[in-house]
Structure formats: structure tokens, C-alpha cells
Write a structure and sequence with these properties.
The structure holds two protein chains of two kinds. In chain A, the strands form two sheets. Chain A has a six-stranded mixed beta sheet, with helices on both faces. By secondary structure, chain A is α/β, with parallel strands linked by helices. In chain A, α3 crosses α5 (about 120-135), α3 (about 95-100) packs parallel to α6 and α5 (about 120-135) packs across α6 (about 155-165). Chain A is built from eleven helices and ten strands. Chain A is about 40% helix and about 25% strand. Chain A has two domains: about 1-80 and about 170-260, Rossmann fold (3-Layer(aba) Sandwich); about 90-165, no CATH class. In chain B, β2 (about 140) and β3 form a beta hairpin. Chain B starts with a helix and ends with a helix. In chain B, the strands form two sheets. A two-stranded antiparallel sheet of chain B has the order 1-4. A two-stranded antiparallel ribbon of chain B has the order 2-3. By secondary structure, chain B is mainly alpha-helical. In chain B, α2 (about 20-45) runs parallel beside α7 (about 145-170) and α3 packs parallel to α5. Chain B has helices spanning about 1-10, 20-45, 55-70, 75-95, 100-120, 125, 145-170, 175-185, 185-190, 195-220, 230-245, 250-265, 275-285, 290-305; strands at about 135, 140, 145, 225. The longest helix of chain B has 27 residues, at about 195-220. Chain B is globular, with a radius of gyration of 19 Å. Chain B has one domain (about 1-230). At the A-B interface, α2, α3, α4 and α5 of A face α7, α8, α9 and α10 of B. The complex binds adenosine-5'-triphosphate and magnesium ion. Adenosine-5'-triphosphate binds near residues 38 and 40 of chain A.
Chain lengths: ~260, ~300
């Protein structure tokens, strides 16, 4: 198991946003989390990636307990993620954004950086190479030189994936990578995720596009109001009466229309 | 490329100086530019404000006064010691302070600047108190640096070095990490960047830039008062950064140039000098809201399209 979470809980102002959620993900899988708006999907990602500290429970990553570890420490162990609300480095070019992704593998001291020693030049060249390859993987190779602000929303989503890829993660958390994407772009996201899995990267996916989720996932976990409603293969989850109920209840009627309609 | 252009500019400019007075202004521009480049690394690139940088300027300035006068150290060694002391203080204070963001960070750094200025004023036995103290001339390899012309070259070489180091830093892993922190700390963290450490590093570096500039200012003027470390000086440095352009190293030179030269040019207006200065700065910011250099560069790029 590359990731195990046990009885994770966190509250905001007395409301349990995540309530005793447990999960375990085998290496190389695509593990999706679905659920109505506000059910705690992003919060669960924030707990796993170290942005929030759980009030209860523990997280194990690659066999080691990492509960409460800072996000940068987790990143250096091979956990990377993208954001639902884009977190682009908007002052930097597309290529530079992705170059930052490679930071954890860059080893030059600050003195060398100030003096632009040959080691820094070599590192810059190597980092650029990695970044260009990551951009090519998400189909943005031609946009490398552009200002990141000049990209369309769907392209920015893929830019974040490329940036996370440049860190060479073992586990990649994607928070709604296809949100706001047209069908062609969604197809592109599908293709990218499959290629990641082929390279042995484990993917955790939060996504509202049910077609994408049901097509690509090995396992699906359904959250409702911070609790696990169901977990299983896409077929099991789709057939689960509680899931259909949750999606048809007043809490998620819009979701239901989008998901199963 | 920009480094060579700036070096050439600094070297060629004196050909157009009609009198020694212009050398004096040139020296002041170069010295302030050095401090502003350092502050711009912190503000423009890493996105962390400091309203107390004159405190480090003051440490540098008093080092080259106290070192030779009270401790018998050579000026250049005092200058280095001042830079190390500034870096050390920045390191110790930066750790708790840099956790703060935005306005809170601004007020905390403001407090730091006030604290340093008060220490310099109150330790009258060492610093001469509010009256200040005189600063012995700089000796370099047996050469006593005197007069604006000599100082122009010393300040020019130092500024170009500081300029090149800043450009180098921005085109390096550390520089990219700093720019990332400016735009999204959260994204920087999940990409493995130790945000606290990077902020601290750039705070220390920018404090050392200010310290060296302060030492030069004191050595050049031959005299130093606590005003050099005062609140107004800190604000002036911030204004130079913003006016020239946040995150533009060339802008640092332009910002310092405008705020050093303009008051000289406006002296003909006597009592209204300060008011006009304020007005000009306001107009600049209204029409070139990203600062002089980025705004003009943006306009030129837009026209080319
Ligand atoms: N930092 C926070 N402070 C207070 N409440 C929070 C915080 N983060 C999340 N919440 C609350 O936790 C609940 C779950 O939010 P979360 O963003 O995880 O939902 P989600 O499943 O990702 O929804 P969506 O599909 O809209 O992205 C919401 O009620 C939200 O308001
Ligand atoms: Mg969400």
C-alpha cells in the first residue's frame, strides 16, 4: 500500500468536515473520490498532503507514518498535488512554473546560486529539460515560452499537472483536473492520467465528471458530509443504493443530473 | 546581457557629467541603488515587505564609524563586520517575523527598524547619540578614497557586482523558489520548497545589501547621524523599489535615480520642494502603476504586437 489513512478526522468551527475516513491505496492504482459539493473531498486532499493536520487518525505514506508532516517534507518524499482553485505562479512563464516543480531534486547552494557557478548552469539546463518533457506530456510543449497568465483555464489545469509531474512524484493528487474543460480537453486529461499510471505513478483523483471517473478508476470512494458512504470498484459504487440516494437527495440533485443523467 | 549594459552605462555616464557635483549625485544614486536592489530581492521577488531596512543601513553606516574610531579596525574590515552583523540580526529576527504576512509583516519590520534606530541614538558613548559621529576615510590597499570622482568608481564597481549577483540569484533554483513563494506559498510548499528557510535566506541577503550601502554612504559623507537608520529612510527605500518596479532589478536603479535626482532638481521651488516631490511620485504611480521599468517595458512589448 502506498497510502493508508486511518480514521482521519478534522473539524472547522465544530463542524466535522472529515469524519473518521479510512482508505488504503495500492501502488499503481487510480483511486477516485467523489461526492456532492462540500462533502469534504478537497479537505481530505489537504489532510493527506499535509496542509491541514488531522485532529484524529493517521496517514502512512510508502510505509512510514507521516501524520502532521509539513507539505514540503511530504513533497520531498514523493507526494505531489494540484489544486481545485488554481495555484499558478502567475508572474512566471509556463516553463518556469514547471521548473519550480523540479525544485526538490535541485541541489545547488545559495552561494553557488549567487555566483552562478557552473553547477548552477548545469542544474538550470537539467531542470529545463525535465520541465519541457513534463510540458510535452500534458500537451503544452508549444506554450513553454508564454506567460502563464495567457493560457486558457483548461490549459492551466494541465499546467498544474505538468508542474506536479516535474517533481517526479510517487503519488499524485489531482483535484478536479477536468473542471471547466471542454470534451476534447477532458479526453486529454484522461489520456494523461493513463500515461502516468503506465509509468507507475499512483493517482488520487477528485472529479465531478462521472464518465471520466468510472472509466479510469480502479477504486472509488464516495464521501457525503465528511463520511465514507461507499467504497469499491466503479461498478460496485454505481450499483450502491446509498450512493444513488445521496446523489438524488436534495443535497446533490444537481450533481445527480450531471453524474447519472 | 543586462549586466554588461549596466556596467557600460555606469562606465560611460561620467563622460556627460558637466561638473564634479554630478559625480556626487552619481555616487548617491549608485549607493542607494545597491540598497534598493537588495530590498527588491525581498519585496519584488519574494513578495515580503520590509519597512525597517534603514535599520540595516544604519548598522552598516555605524560599523565603519565605530570600527575604526573605537576599535582600531580598518574601514574595509568594519564594513564586512557590519554586513555580517546585519545578516546575523536579520537571521535571528527573521525567523519569527517572516511567519507574518502582509500588513502584519510590515508593522513588525517597522518595529525592527525603530528598535535599531533607537539603539543607535541611545548608545551615545559609541555612536555620538543624536549628533552622530564623523567617519574616517576609506583606505583600500594604501589608497585613500577621497572625492566624488574616486567614490563614483568604487560605488560603481560595487553596484555592478550587487546587480550581477541579484541577476544570478534570480536565474537559479533559489530565485525560482522565491518567485514561486511570491505567487503562491501553498503551491510552493507542496512542490517541496521550504518556504520559511527561503524567506529567511533572502531577508538576510537583502539586509547585507542594505548594510554595505549604509557603510558606503557613511564613508562617502564622512559623517553619520541616526537619521540614516530612521523610519523615513526605510520608507524612502520602499518607495524607490515600488517606483522603479517591483521585481525589476533595472528598476531599482531607476527608482533610486528618480528619488535622488528629483529632490535636487526641485530645490529651485524652495518651500514647495517636498510637496512637488510627493506630487510627482503620485503621478508616476497613477500612470505607471507597475513601476517605471515594468510599465514602460510592458507598453513597448504591447506596441510591438
Ligand atoms: N479552512 C476551512 N475553514 C472552514 N471550513 C472549511 C475549511 N475547509 C473546508 N471547510 C468546509 O469543509 C466542508 C468541505 O469542503 P471541501 O472543500 O472539502 O468540499 P469538496 O468536497 O471539495 O467540495 P467541492 O466539490 O465544491 O469542491 C465545507 O463545508 C467547507 O466549507
Ligand atoms: Mg473541492
Amino acid at each position: 500500500m502506498i497510502l493508508e489513512a486511518e480514521q482521519l478526522s478534522v473539524s472547522f468551527g465544530g463542524v466535522r468536515a472529515i469524519d473518521e475516513v479510512s482508505l488504503s491505496i495500492a501502488a499503481g492504482q487510480v483511486f477516485s473520490i467523489i461526492g456532492p459539493n462540500g462533502s469534504g473531498k478537497t479537505t481530505l486532499f489537504n489532510l493527506i498532503s499535509g496542509i491541514y493536520t488531522p485532529s484524529h487518525g493517521c496517514v502512512r505514506f510508502a510505509g512510514e507514518t507521516v501524520t502532521g508532516l509539513e507539505p514540503d517534507r511530504l513533497a520531498r518524499r514523493g507526494l505531489s498535488r494540484t489544486f481545485q482553485n488554481l495555484q499558478i505562479f502567475s508572474r512566471m512563464s509556463v516553463l518556469e512554473n514547471v521548473m519550480v516543480g523540479h525544485h526538490r531534486h535541485e541541489d545547488t547552494g545559495i552561494l553557488a546560486d549567487l555566483l552562478h557557478w557552473p553547477s548552477v548552469r548545469r542544474q538550470n539546463a537539467a531542470t529545463r529539460e525535465v520541465a519541457l518533457a513534463a510540458l510535452a506530456r500534458v500537451g503544452l510543449a508549444d506554450d513553454a515560452r508564454r506567460a502563464s497568465g495567457a493560457l486558457a483555464y483548461g490549459a492551466l489545469k494541465r499546467l498544474e499537472i505538468a508542474r506536479a509531474l516535474a517533481s517526479d512524484p510517487k503519488l499524485l493528487l489531482l483535484d478536479e483536473p477536468a473542471a471547466g474543460c471542454n470534451p476534447v480537453e477532458t479526453q486529454e486529461v484522461d489520456r494523461v492520467i493513463r500515461s502516468l499510471v503506465k509509468d507507475g505513478i499512483t493517482v488520487m483523483l477528485v472529479e465531478h465528471d462521472m464518465r471520466l471517473v468510472m472509466n479510469i478508476s480502479d477504486r472509488v470512494l464516495v464521501l457525503a458530509r465528511g463520511r465514507t458512504l461507499a467504497e469499491g470498484t466503479p461498478e460496485q459504487v454505481r450499483a450502491n443504493p446509498a450512493v444513488i440516494e445521496a446523489y438524488l437527495g436534495d443535497h446533490g440533485s444537481k450533481e445527480a443530473a450531471r453524474a447519472f443523467g | 546581457m543586462p549586466a554588461i549594459a549596466i556596467a557600460a552605462l555606469v562606465a560611460i555616464l561620467p563622460l556627460f557629467f558637466p561638473s564634479g557635483y554630478y559625480y556626487r549625485i552619481g555616487v548617491l544614486v549608485l549607493i542607494f541603488s545597491l540598497a534598493v536592489v537588495g530590498l527588491n530581492l525581498l519585496m519584488g521577488f519574494a513578495g515580503q515587505v520590509s519597512l525597517g531596512h534603514a535599520g540595516f543601513l544604519g548598522i552598516g553606516a555605524y560599523s565603519v564609524a565605530i570600527g575604526p574610531v573605537h576599535l582600531g579596525l580598518p574601514s574595509w574590515l568594519s564594513l564586512l563586520a557590519g554586513a555580517l552583523l546585519s545578516g546575523g540580526i536579520a537571521f535571528l529576527v527573521g525567523r519569527p517575523i517572516l511567519r507574518l504576512k502582509g500588513h502584519y509583516l510590515a508593522v513588525a519590520t517597522l518595529g525592527l527598524g525603530l528598535l535599531l534606530a533607537i539603539v543607535l541614538t541611545n548608545e551615545a558613548r559609541w555612536t555620538g547619540g543624536p549628533d552622530g559621529m564623523s567617519v574616517p576615510k576609506l583606505e583600500l590597499f594604501g589608497w585613500s578614497v577621497r572625492g566624488a570622482t574616486a567614490w563614483y568608481w568604487v560605488a560603481g564597481v560595487t553596484f555592478v557586482c550587487g546587480f550581477v549577483l541579484a541577476l544570478n540569484l534570480m536565474d537559479s533554483p533559489t530565485g525560482r523558489a522565491l518567485q514561486a513563494i511570491h505567487d503562491s506559498e501553498i503551491a510552493a510548499r507542496v512542490l517541496g520548497i521550504d518556504v520559511a528557510r527561503k524567506k529567511l535566506a533572502i531577508f538576510v541577503i537583502s539586509a547585507m545589501y542594505a548594510s554595505v550601502a549604509g557603510s558606503f554612504l557613511a564613508l562617502f559623507n564622512g559623517y553619520i547621524t541616526p537619521d540614516a537608520a530612521g523610519f523615513l529612510r526605510s520608507i524612502e527605500l520602499v518607495a524607490m523599489v515600488v517606483l522603479g518596479g517591483m521585481g525589476s532589478i533595472v528598476g531599482s536603479l531607476v527608482g533610486a535615480c528618480v528619488l535622488v535626482v528629483l529632490p535636487q532638481a526641485l530645490t529651485v521651488f524652495h518651500d514647495y520642494e517636498q510637496a512637488l516631490l510627493g506630487l510627482v511620485v503620485m503621478v508616476f504611480m497613477i500612470f505607471l502603476r507597475q513601476g517605471i521599468v515594468p510599465s514602460i517595458a510592458g507598453a513597448l512589448a504591447g506596441r510591438r504586437k
